[in-house]
Specification:
The structure holds two protein chains of two kinds. Chain A has helices spanning about 40-50, 70-80, 95-100, 115-120, 135-150, 165-180, 195-200, 220-230; strands at about 5-15, 15-25, 30-35, 55-60, 65, 80-85, 155-160, 185-190, 200-205, 210-215. Chain A is an alpha/beta fold. Chain A has a six-stranded mixed sheet with strand order 6-7-8-3-9-10, sandwiched between helices. In chain B, strands 1-4 form a two-stranded antiparallel ribbon. Chain B has a two-stranded antiparallel ribbon with strand order 2-3. In chain B, strand 2 and strand 3 (about 135-140) form a beta hairpin. Classes of the chains: A alpha/beta, B mainly alpha.
């Protein structure tokens, strides 16, 4: 049984379709990366998984239970946590308070203020600093730490490296490595293709709201991904790897 | 000396305005709901105290122990059953709901108790005063009101800064969607904030009633206006700013009263407009968002 399963997700903003018939699964301990150009529907899909955006149709199942109708805060309490695009820290709160709010779900587990600051050492000297006074990289670390405080089983990371210097991104990803070892499932939205290929167990490429290519970094060529990314080669539907089930025009199961 | 006396009375009057404005500030800060019925909630608080006094012979201070939790309870369920549903329609819908409540309450009070003033006796407290120097006296009730207002603001500030619920309320003021994504049930939090706002409004209503010697169904109209003005003058998002706003408004009114008894309302409103024009963020600019 997959940890998280999305079936035939169709998400819209008014009449505009942002995601069309996308299905995916995430297993425990797996890192699934969603890649695609701006506006491909990646962030919307993450928001659907987190319960922040109600899909027009389709279902989301978590640990075998249909959670499609559960609200965002209820999903967080079950163990699905979104690190939103733009970090969205509580600007008038201190770093410590931001982290404590992240523990609002009261889920027990390995993560608390001590273990989070151990895993993200950059946070330790900043605890009493106001969140609005932080650099972008520090803010992102707080956003990740805040999410970990809820002891999630599924972590949804949206645009982790957006607007950050390469060295800061390196540090963040280095911090994420031990977090992955705890066995949680991660869905990552990332613009940086090289980095995605380096860390992902599986990749789903989205184009104009559809999942057009999927596979593992080992089975997909760089060319295939960039073609799917920019929409040059829709004929590549299905990829070549074992994990890449045929997508078909009606959307596939990745 | 007349001016000094007016200044002192104005500062003390500001305590009442600040108390009235505190609940409004919380409702707006946390929920982004402009509660147009805030003055009427104050009136209801004063009515319950007046009725408790005349029917059950309850001391006005004892009646506060009943009125504040009762109105807090009402606030909780008004938020959950009415305003929360209205929020789903649009951000403006709760404004209309509170406008409706502001119309219904005085009319129900007129039906039940006529338009006559309901007495709130304070055992002479309202007329007792301490003479500081020749020509300047401090009323005991206004002094108590100011002390209570300062204590209430300090307690609210402490609650917001130190408790988990207070932390969530400040986080909600920053970004309520992200707060939900962190597993916090916003509906319960909003209802608690409204309970706090209603409870404090009722508290302020009783003090207003004591100052005036009683309460009529129409007292809410002016009370909500003064409360709004205190919040805007002080600066949205700052509780101590609200106190400063209340004092500025109180002083403006009493100083104008020295010139002519017809001027206080006009001058108070002019000061409010002047702040809106020249310092729209308020006189106290604070990063602490309530």
């Amino acid at each position: 049984m997959a940890l998280l399963e999305a079936h035939d997700i169709d998400a819209r903003y008014g009449d505009v379709r942002a995601v069309t018939d996308v299905s995916l699964t995430l297993d425990q301990g797996e890192l699934l990366a969603l890649v695609g150009a701006n506006g491909a529907g990646k962030s919307t899909l993450l928001r659907v998984l987190a319960g922040a955006h109600r899909p027009f149709s389709g279902t989301v199942a978590y640990q075998g239970e249909d959670v499609t109708r559960l609200r965002d805060f209820e999903r967080n309490r079950r163990g699905i946590c979104l690190v939103p695009e733009g970090r969205r820290l509580f600007a008038s709160l201190t770093v410590r308070e931001n982290l404590l709010v992240g523990g609002g779900s009261q889920r027990s587990g390995r993560w608390d203020l001590g273990t989070v600051t151990d895993a993200l050492p950059v946070l330790a000297p900043l605890l009493d600093r106001n969140a609005s006074q932080l650099s972008g990289g520090q803010q992102q670390a707080v956003a990740i730490g805040r999410a970990l405080m809820s002891n999630p089983e599924v972590l949804l990371l949206d645009e982790v490296s957006l607007g950050l210097a390469p060295i800061v991104i390196d540090e963040l990803y280095a911090s994420l490595a031990p977090v992955r070892e705890t066995g949680l499932g991660i869905v990552l939205v990332e613009q940086d293709l090289e980095r995605t290929l380096a860390v992902a167990d599986r990749i789903v490429c989205m184009l104009e709201g559809e999942a057009v290519l999927a596979g593992t970094p080992a089975t997909l060529t760089h060319e295939q991904i960039t073609d799917a990314y920019f929409g040059h080669a829709i004929a590549l539907h299905g990829g070549t790897g074992d994990d890449a089930a045929a997508a078909g025009s009606g959307g596939g199961r990745w | 000396m007349v001016v000094v006396n007016a200044l002192v009375q104005g500062i003390l009057l500001g305590g009442l305005f600040a108390m009235a404005a505190l609940g409004l500030s919380i409702a707006f800060g946390v929920l982004r709901v402009v509660n147009l019925a805030h003055g009427e909630i104050m009136t209801v608080g004063a009515y319950i105290a007046a009725i408790g006094l005349s029917w059950a012979g309850l001391n006005v201070w004892v009646s506060m122990l009943i009125v504040v939790p009762v109105l807090g309870f009402v606030g909780y369920w008004v938020q959950r059953l009415l305003l929360q549903r209205a929020l789903r329609i649009s951000e403006l819908a709760p404004l209309l709901v509170t406008f409706g409540i502001a119309i219904i309450i005085p009319n129900v009070l007129i039906e039940l108790f006529t338009t006559n003033k309901q007495q709130i006796a304070t055992g002479g407290l309202a007329v007792r005063s301490i003479q500081v120097v020749e020509g300047v006296s401090i009323g005991v009730l206004p002094l108590i009101t100011m002390i209570v207002a300062v204590a209430l603001i300090a307690a609210t500030q402490l609650f917001l800064a130190r408790t988990r619920t207070g932390r969530y309320m400040r986080a909600a003021a920053d970004d309520s969607e992200t707060l939900r994504l962190m597993g916090v049930d916003h509906r319960r939090l909003y209802a608690l904030a409204m309970a706090l706002a209603f409870g404090i409004a009722a508290f302020a209503g009783i003090f207003l009633g004591m100052r005036q010697g009683g309460v009529t169904p129409f007292d809410g109209h002016l009370a909500v206006l003064f409360a709004f003005e205190a919040v805007i003058i002080g600066g949205l998002g700052s509780l101590w700013g609200t106190l400063a706003g209340g004092i500025v408004l109180g002083v403006a009114q009493t100083l104008a009263g020295v010139v002519s008894p017809e001027l206080p309302l006009l001058v108070g409103n002019l000061v409010f407009l002047a702040v809106l024009m020249f310092r729209p963020a308020g006189i106290v600019r604070s990063k602490v968002v309530v």
